[in-house]
Amino acid sequence: MVGRMGFGAMQLAGPGVFGPPADHDEAIAVLRTAVELGVTHIDTADFYGPHVTNELIREALAPYPDDLHIVTKVGAVRDASGGWIHARKPAELREQVYDNLRRLDLSVMDVVNLRVGGGADGHSPEPGSIGEMFEALAAMRSEGLIRHLGLSTVDAAQLAEAQAIAPVVCVQNFYNIAGRRDDSLVRLTAARGIAFVPYFPLGGFTPLQSDTLSAVAARVGASPMAVAQAWLLQRSPNILLIPGTSSVAHLRQNVASASLVLDAETVAELDAIGG
């Protein structure tokens, strides 16, 4: 079991998720403060940096608390200029799992998500079989290198294909108060007992902007970002959040937003943002 408010490590790397952090000591402080605040779910990837966030996590937190669960994703690598390159052949996926284990100083990964999709916007599912890729990860699960498997940037058909191969514990897709393309997948995963972990819950590289969101935030005395996260937590009980930040102050605000409760009328008002 993990708390519903986790932490996404992507923003700990440098600009464009490439290179070292602007403030190494602050990055270490963010990770340690997250654990102190009760965060038990940290999301990372060895292609963040590359290698930067995993090495920071190891430096800040190893040996890890027994209740801390580190989730990574595979399916991409970075080139010398920071480009994102698909790397989804079975041998490439195996190498990436070993890279995560080595840099995190772990003997087994709690959860490995297979990151597929992409599209023109970088975060859309792309139809097609993922069977060979998922079978490669399922083999590593059988070998004891991975405890649980998840998926990222997939559609319902790909989830069904993966479930026929091995259990799926989570789906990590683009989703937020304004980006509601996956409403049906949220419902489907909830019905199947699968966690839904929205990435870019606050809009990602283009932060959420909405007059309605701002007005609600002013009325309830919270920040727009806190309201957007509270809406997600109330959207479905299977949603887990992994907002990222490189600031201890912003981290504290994100964790505090988990206690914000919106009434039904306010939720309905916010629902309209997504059409």
Main sheet: strand order:
1-2-3-6-7-8-9
Discrete helix count: 10
- Uncertain parts: none
What is the helix content? 25-40%
Name the average pLDDT. 94
Order of helices and strands: EHEHEEEHEHEHEHEHHHH
Strand content: 5-15%
Q: What is the distance, rounded to the nearest whole angstrom, between the alpha carbons of the first and last residues?
A: 33 Å
Q: Give me the Rg, rounded.
A: 18 Å
Question: What's the total count of β strands?
Answer: 9
Structural class: alpha/beta
Q: Biggest β-sheet, characterized? A: 7 strands, parallel
Which term fits the overall shape? Answer: globular
3D architecture notes:
With 275 residues, the chain is of the alpha/beta class. Helices cover 39% and strands 13% of the residues. The chain is built from 10 helices and 9 strands. The strands form 2 sheets. The protein has a 7-stranded parallel sheet, covered by helices on one side. The chain has a two-stranded antiparallel sheet with strand order 4-5. Strand 7, helix 5 and strand 8 form a beta-alpha-beta unit. The chain is globular and about 55 Å long.
Briefly summarize what is shown.
The chain has ten helices and nine strands.
What's the SSE blueprint?
Elements: E1 7-8, H1 24-36, E2 41-43, H2 52-61, E3 69-74, E4 76-78, E5 84-86, H3 90-104, E6 109-115, H4 131-142, E7 146-152, H5 156-163, E8 170-172, H6 183-191, E9 195-196, H7 211-220, H8 224-235, H9 248-256, H10 264-271
Parallel strand pairs: 1-2, 2-3, 3-6, 6-7, 7-8, 8-9
Antiparallel strand pairs: 4-5
Helix pairs in contact: 1-2, 1-9, 3-4, 7-8
